[in-house]
# Entry
Amino acid sequence: MSHLAGAQKGTSSPDSRDMSLDLTLLLDLDNTLLDSSMDTFLPAYFQAFSAFLEEQVDPQRMISALMSGTRKMMANNDPTRTLKQVFDDEFFPKIGYAREELQPRIDLFYEEKFPTLSHLTRPRPEALELVQWAARQGIHMAVATNPLFPLAALHHRMRWAGLQPEESPFLIVSAYESFHFAKPKPAYFAEILGRMGWPEGPVLMVGDDPGNDLPGSHALGLSTYWINTSDTPAPNGIDIAGRGSIGDLRPWLERTDLSTLEPDFSRPETLIALMLATPATIDGMLPWLSGREQAAGPDMKRRPIPKEWSLTEILYHLRDTEQEINLPRMRMLLELEEPFIPARDTDAWAVTRDYKSQDAGVALKGFADARMQTVDLLRSLADEWKRRARHAIFGPTDLQELVRFMVEHDKLHIRQILSTLEQLGE
# Structure
């Protein structure tokens, strides 16, 4: 998915108020950018899918397998397994086929039959106008739809909304092939921001679903704009930043102090979601390492410039830091009263441990395994988040602040991976 489309970004506008806005918009698709009710669309989609494959699988068995696979995706917490992997592992055994046997027929469904479901939706011209305006402002945007569909299906639905994927201003579209968490999990919202390169500045989640769009983004510390024109109270006391139609969003943004939309990533549940999302984000950026893509990726051992690490070196740095720095420090802080935490020079390990000559896939798996130990440890905490320590560089600190430092370290290297991929031509 390309960055801001050149044609849209360069379009002259008669609106003299057009200016560069330091903002990231996470835009839901259904009933936000596209007039489409999942209550109507999903049954029709399931019926069309099962009818298309009825010569291979009994329709009732097919629908049961589809629903079961969808539930598994919604429940997934494993940052090393994409939602497609989770779905396939549940779906194909239930219908009695190997994936390779039926996948060509499924691909044909999305090519030929899925587009005929467009009559169940309607474009929202005001949504298209908003996206075009936001692109002119240089606003970072993502299609933050629940990633339970293949990318091919999402591209069709974007076209139904009047958005052309080939000239898209969106940095990412969340699809089941490369995402690991679903809404309303806070880790989903962390993963999509990670895939965007952790853009700086204010972030706003825009969506209509009070069960999926609002709670998870709120739990991550994001501001939310609710596509809702009624006076219905927000669910569970969520403090929404604004509400209205998608057409109301631009004037609302123009009169809003965007600094009030800065994320708050300080709470324990937020920090856990951020820590969980990092291996998922990296796995999504490097799909060839897990064999999800047949085509080879870039040279994992090549440094884009002599003083910059290669992708392999970055992954081994993350793995060894997690195994030998982060986990031991947290355990020490939990076991001792105000321990002293010495500084360690981990950058030198790239040379002394000869990272560049090793297997990047091994590093990514090792990092994910160690990070899950960290996440499990954090999930077990109650009142320990404020346990104190003395750090050689940061001075007096506590566990919660140390985890925030870990999160910032993650963001730094996610941006580094994206930059390296761009420099290597990916």
